[in-house]
Amino acid sequence: MSTDAGAFMTALTLILGLDPYLLDIVALSLRVSLSAVALAALMGLPLGAALALWRFPGHAALVVALNALMGLPPVVAGLCVYLLLSRAGPLGELGLLFTPAAMVVAQVVLVMPIIAALARQQVQELHQEYHEQLASLGLSRLRMIPTLLWDARLGLVTVILAGFGRASAEVGAVMIVGGNIDGVTRVMTTAIVLETSKGNLPLALGLGIVLLGLVALINAAAYLMGEMARRRQG
Amino acid sequence: MQHKTRIALTAIGLIGLSLAAQAQDGEKYITLASTTSTENSGLFDAIIPQFTEVTDIDVRVVAVGTGQAFEIGRRGDADSLLVHDTAGEKRFVEEGYGAERADVMYNDFVIIGPSGDPAGITDAETVAEALTLIAETEAPFASRGDDSGTNRAELRLWDSAGIEPSGEWYRELGSGMGATLNTAAAMDAYVMSDRATWVAFDNRQNLELLFEGDEALFNQYGSILMNPERFPHLKHDLAEQWHEWLLSDEGQQAIADFEVKGQQLFFPNAKQ
Amino acid sequence: MNDMTTLPVTDVPTLEMQGVTFIHRGQRLLGPLDLQLRGCRRTLVMGPNGAGKSLLMRLAHGLLKPTAGRIHWEGSAPRQAMVFQRPVLLRRSALANLTYALAVTGTPLAQRRPLAREALKRFGLAALETRPARVLSGGEQQRLTLARAWLLKPEVLFLDEPTSALDPAAIKAVEDAVQEFHAHGTRILMSSHDLHQARRLADEVLFLNRGCLVEHSDARSFFTAPASREARAFIQGELVL
């Protein structure tokens, strides 16, 4: 019980005191996860749309693979990216290991399948409704993609939020490729692991509460935006 | 469409560039692969600023188990290593990954257990006797089981006591020191910890320090410089400054001055 | 009405279908069917449910490819537009739905809004410009799809049972729009199962039954003296109702 009470007090003190240690890792967490989600969306949305619009040999296998990758353990993603970015690996020359960029790459690997797979479902539904009309207007499938993505935007916001949730909550991948270096690659989740291993449970839980609050805040903002757009669109 | 594609590609490029730039901006730093025990104790927070003040070089610590630290070194992903597995360190140099290894400091391991001490190890003369008592009473024992320096040291101690630990009571957790202590606290198990992590550890619950002081429990830390012929891309100049500083009077003093809760945790013993 | 067939707008290309067949999952849904549609006329495609009316229009418009046979526009394919039974509108404002169609056809940005507003006004939708298209009433939505078709300046306009879900006032608006398109030189190919509507609009009638073209004749002769037994039964049945 005392741990729980301590955790809330710690969280409160951290937030109200604008603790610089906390602000740094919160800023880095947001930077890494938002960059990862942005990149994953830029790749995953068109990929999902393409899978919704085209049938080709191996299509089913690709869809199943994407769905399976949604459940990829973060540690495995981290390990793969680690082997890729390590000096001894194929992209070692870039010198990205143990940098925020490496963490972004690992989270893109985790988030992209989620966005692509869920976007495929949304776009496919909309395509069934739209495709005769769009084809009648003379649009090729390729040119339908931006229209479908834009008109599915309300649902896609939820898809992207799901991706952000996964990115901001995972610890296994960023721990391996980032190294949890103080002031360089330490984010909310790796800080929580570190404080837990120090036995500093109130601080660890406090950080967890702050993380939860942040994710809730971003979701609330997206929800409000969605509601406003929905009201405008009917 | 083409226009939008171009915008999208530009955006990807810009994000990538900004992150890469962030990663490689002018600041001088080395990447040090070290162990969770040193990082968790707060030693680095105390001594690295002193080193940076003199040399203007930042040290970025990746704190992992000793086994993983060696692997990071073998792949050329760290400029220097500070670990505690003397035999492993010497092999690392012999195999051509490291160029040089030097003693830096030692701390010691202690045996922690539930305050009731069901195996009665408090009265043991040697650590071998203490471990034998635990094995005989089959009292729960939590092992790191992660091929870390601490884990390797623990296994050597069992070995020299003539015991092959196995059975219900011997639990390999595959976790770091802190996580292992948390688990031991939760299941009232014996556990071997480095003193530094133990002193700094807050979630003790029913655990107590039950055995200490046997010389067999001393835990030597060594600093390793990487082999520049094998890893030409590493920052050998900067790493060497760090290595030399650790062994210098200044560095040794900084280590000696570091205390947690009024206790000195690391004892410098570099050969001058 | 039928004197309008003499309107001298004849440069709409002729559509030719030869042996056109459409088979789906082993079932022959249409054809084989031979057909020539010439001139700027108003052609009503009639027949009971499942006769293949929608299929014929989609094949002619190019939304579907025939399993066998040839569909061919004499000369180059004309500009076309299609209005569906259930209006398909984008999740945007009424105005944005129209500017979208203009963007697709490559209209310069500066002209899109003025042209779209003009079309909204023509179809009595000016007051609804900023409303989300999908909250409009059924009749308003269908008028918006007509406005969208208008902006495409089609030489041929396909309408697939455009009034089947509308109330009488909305039906009148759609029929007026069809007349307006035709008066501006657009060839009309429209399916309907409403005989009254066909009498009001048609220059000629295509009568389909079970995937076969049973009759292709002038509207006057179709309604007064249908040549086939099926068409007679169809007209009788409708009149009995």
TrEMBL record, chain A:
Per UniProt, subcellular location reads as:
Cell membrane
Keyword set includes NADP: no
**Topology relative to the membrane, per the entry?**
Multi-pass membrane protein
Lipid biosynthesis in keyword set: no
One cellular component term from this protein's GO annotations in UniProt: plasma membrane
Q: Tell me which residues make up the ABC transmembrane type-1 domain.
A: 26-222
Q: Which InterPro entries match?
A: ABC_perm_TupB-like, MetI-like, MetI-like_sf
Per the record, the GO terms for biological process are: transmembrane transport
Entry keywords, A to Z: Membrane, Transmembrane, Transmembrane helix
The record, for Gene3D superfamilies, names: MetI-like
CDD domains, sorted: TM_PBP2
Q: Which residues cross the membrane?
A: 7-28, 34-54, 61-85, 97-119, 148-165, 203-225
Name the principal localization, coarsely classed: membrane
Q: What is this protein called?
A: Tungstate transport system permease protein
TrEMBL record, chain B:
Answer yes or no on keyword Signal.
yes
Keywords of the record: Signal
**Signal sequence, start to end:** 1-23
The answer to whether UniProt assigns keyword Ribonucleoprotein to this entry is no
Outline the extent of the PBP domain.
30-250
Pfam families, alphabetized: PBP_like_2 (PF12849)
Q: What is this protein called?
A: Tungstate transport system substrate-binding protein
Tell me the organism.
Answer: Halomonas ventosae
TrEMBL record, chain C:
User: What is an example of a Pfam family matching this protein?
Assistant: ABC_tran
Q: Which SUPFAM superfamilies match?
A: P-loop containing nucleoside triphosphate hydrolases
Tell me which UniProt keywords the record has, alphabetically: ATP-binding, Cell membrane, Membrane, Nucleotide-binding, Transport
> GO terms for CC?
plasma membrane
Q: Does the keyword Transmembrane helix apply?
A: no
Q: Keyword Cell membrane: yes or no?
A: yes
The way this protein sits in the membrane is described as:
Peripheral membrane protein
Q: Which SMART domains match?
A: AAA (SM00382)
Where does the record place the ABC transporter domain? Answer: 15-235
Please state where this protein is localized.
Cell inner membrane
Its main subcellular localisation, reduced to a broad class, is membrane
Q: What is a single molecular function from GO for this protein?
A: ATP hydrolysis activity
InterPro entries, from UniProt? AAA+_ATPase, ABC_transporter-like_ATP-bd, ABC_transporter-like_CS, MetN_ABC_transporter-like, P-loop_NTPase
Family to which this protein belongs: Belongs to the ABC transporter superfamily.
Protein name in the entry:
Amino acid ABC transporter ATP-binding protein (PAAT family)
Which organism's genome codes for this protein? Answer: Halomonas ventosae
